[in-house]
Amino acid sequence: MKDRNAFSQQERDAVYRAISTRRDVRRGFLPKPLPDDLLNRLLNAAHSAPSVGFMQPSRFIIIRDLAVRQTVHGAFLQANNQALATYTGDRHEQYASLKLEGILESPQNLCVLSDAQSQRGHRLGRQTMPETAIYSTVCAIQNLWLAARAEGVGVGWVSILDPARLRKILHIPEEIVPVAYLCLGYVDGFSPEPELELTGWEKRIPLEVVVSHDMYCEHRSIDNAADKDV
Length: 230
Ligand SMILES: Cc1cc2nc3c(=O)[nH]c(=O)nc-3n(C[C@H](O)[C@H](O)[C@H](O)COP(=O)(O)O)c2cc1C
Hints:
Helices cover 41% and strands 13% of the residues. By secondary structure, the protein is α+β, with helices and mostly antiparallel strands. Residues 23-24, 26, 100-101, 157-160, 194, 196 line the site of flavin mononucleotide (FMN).
């Protein structure tokens, strides 16, 4: 029986479809820029996210300027080379072959920041867990990511960046935390599975392995389980 507060079946299907077909997109961006009204809907989805004490700490920088994107891309290349150097053997080869950003191909990038020092919300919920300000911004990012999928817009998260360098490039003040650097745009399609799964970098963990009841289950090592092809 359907709860009277539940969405219709069609609406629920649409929500779960957005969740299951959302992908991190690094390739296949189309050059046509997103119209302002669409970008605004996505930002509004982000801005509607839950936030601790309703502090609404998320801030957004829309980056369309090619010169700025080129500078950020340069920062990515440097961080990515450093990351590559930490791998050896087959992992090194595999890492080198991965496409991990679409900074220049996507006509707009979005830096999502958190004003974790804001007094909005009067510290409600943050006294024992101050990190919840950043968590709130991550909720905003996920809202945007799902809304973008429903709109047919690809989003790719680039964390292979030195935050200090990003701060300099985008003039981010010290008290503001850069949480995500996103590549956004129309795409030629969405991969059916995570690219990191298709390329053999990592596998999805079965749900039952990560769920326990009434207390944390220590006897299953998830890292070992992954190695044994669970
Ligand atoms: C916090 C965070 C940082 C990420 N950073 C990167 C990144 O720098 N480069 C990249 O290619 N993907 C990045 N991703 C995307 C993940 O690789 C991706 O979510 C994961 O492989 C699962 O694929 P899916 O999002 O398509 O389901 C990041 C995702 C998250 C949540």
